[in-house]
Amino acid sequence: MIELEGLTKRYGEKLAVNRLTFTVRPGMVTGFLGPNGAGKSTTMRMMLGLDRPTAGDVRIDGQHYDGLRDPLKYIGALLDAKGMHGGRSAFNHLLCLAQSNGIPKSRVHEVLDTVGLTAVARKKAKGFSLGMGQRLGIAGALLGDPRILMFDEPVNGLDPEGIHWIRTLMKSLAAQGRTVFVSSHLMSEMALTADHLVVIGQGRLLADTSMADFIRQNSRSYVRIRSPQPEQLLDALSGAGIIAVRAVDGALEVDGGKPEHIGELAAQHQVALHELSPQQASLEEAFMRLTAESVEYHAHSGPPGAGRPDAVTPDAVTPASRQGWGSDWKKG
Amino acid sequence: MSTPQPPMPQQAAPQPSMPPQQAAPNWQAAPAPSYTSPIPIVRTHLGHALSSEWTKIRSVRSTMWTLGVFVLLVVGIGLAAGAAVSSSSPDLSGENPLSLGFFGLLLGSMCIITLGVLTTASEYGTGMIRTTMTACPSRGRVLAAKAIVFFVVAFVITVVSAAFVGFAQVAMLDGTGADEPTGDDWLKGTVGIGLYIALLGLLSLIVGSLVRHSAGAITIMIGTVLAPLVIAMFMFSESLSDLRDALFEYSIPNQLSVFYDNSLSRSGPSGWDPLWIILGVTAVAFVAAYALLEKRDV
């Protein structure tokens, strides 16, 4: 379990991380999502005691990171694929990490086997592809068989096979009861792996919610209609009590409408239709909307909550609503 | 051991037909499924950091290169100087034959400086430092382990090289009237010079930790070794003569030569003074580096 309490990091004028408070729980994959530059990596570095917080606190199983006696057995982290000396072989890289935590040498062979690098164990890391470097980094994270794992953008630069491997690995690690915390700037990636979601933008917490709730609240379905007679169609729709909105390209959009119903309505009023299609807004769009609004909220200092997205604000997620976290979304 | 081999059966595998409430992970109902590793818990100490740093220093090629070139310079130049002097058969009465090793060691010290800087600064260049500090959050322990491992390596290599060259030179100069080195001469020419050069390397390691940039730190250190002497050479003005003498006397090459009792000047450091000077400077730098390491972000 990782607990953040008002964690803040300031670089000169810029607030990179702004009073983050959330908890990463065991037994599930927690996705840490935010656009580039949102403060994800800074937050992770503070969790690992690499950067000193300007204010606030972060605890790993109740302890500060630098209070951990053998940190690799508590928490394994993959920060970036370059966190190694290129001139050192994969085996020696892992060996020096193992020695610093009193981990037996046999464990080095095991993790090399787990990530599939046994054949190149004696090769220098600088000859590794990005994917191999990422695997070596993950081997380092698994070295101490820790109960908490932290991955910063683990699928970056990986081929589809590697991405699939990491997804399966993260889920199985969480299924063993470990805490898995993984950052990404890709909502689509998180939707496939994460059970819980923490979204930040400009260093601020935007959402702390279960993946299922996020999907439920953000998957907007609507009907898209194009017609050469938009005015007549709008009249017909409003006559039936249906509210249509003009989209940017001139098409009309009806939230939650049924295409059959709208098509029949158009036929009754003899309006020609060029398009009538049910649409599902992607999670990626929902994520972009969420983070874009955070930026907007930041720019105008309107009343709190004025420009905020619907119910995914951190305040809206009360402990009570956390009780029923669903995970059936994963079947999709 | 227990590292998962994907795919794994999931305990809380979602059932497609179940409503979310029932399919929710049962971490609240059951006792928290916190994972327990079968790897025994060890209270880590400096010894672990030392073995880790030893693995690091021996597993990169730059160590072999810098130390190889160091031995080559010290032994090569030392033997060449011995051969040149003995063949021209001058009268060397009253001279300390060990002093012929001076030039090789002066040039060789550049290699030790480079290795010292790389021991710390290369970790910042490669990003390895984040991995290191994550594995050992006690930053002081990391710096101490690096310092000890490097110091021992540099000291042993320097003493062995200097001793080998010393024996060879004494043998080569046999019959030129040069003095037989006394026990004190031997002590200063091997252990003394070994401590001095290893401390110079340790100072480089500390500068590497402060500057965090290999090329920058190497430049600073080579400047520190050479600049005072070069600057002093160009101080012609009479009014600056005191400063010029001080720069000469306390320049690192001159301090190095004090170990052979053939200082360029009569005043200034003598005997074991250079060792105490560099020991003091290195200690101050170490404290500064430690304080800054604790304060700064990695």
UniProtKB/TrEMBL annotation, chain A:
Source organism, top-level taxon: Bacteria
Stretches assigned to the ABC transporter domain: 2-227
A GO MF term: ATP hydrolysis activity
PROSITE patterns associated with the record: ABC_TRANSPORTER_2
Residue ranges, annotated region (Disordered): 298-332
SMART domains: AAA
Pfam families per record: ABC_tran
PANTHER family cross-referenced by the UniProt entry: ABC TRANSPORTER, ATP-BINDING PROTEIN
Family assignment from sequence similarity: Belongs to the ABC transporter superfamily.
Protein name (record): ABC transporter ATP-binding protein
From TrEMBL, chain B:
Keyword field: Membrane, Transmembrane, Transmembrane helix
Amino acid composition bias (Low complexity), ranges on this chain: 10-31
Membrane-spanning intervals of the chain: 64-86, 98-121, 142-171, 191-211, 218-237, 275-293
Gene Ontology terms, MF aspect: ABC-type transporter activity
GO cellular component: plasma membrane
Superkingdom per UniProt: Bacteria
Region (Disordered): 1-31
Name recorded for this polypeptide: ABC transporter permease
Species the sequence originates in: Streptomyces sporangiiformans
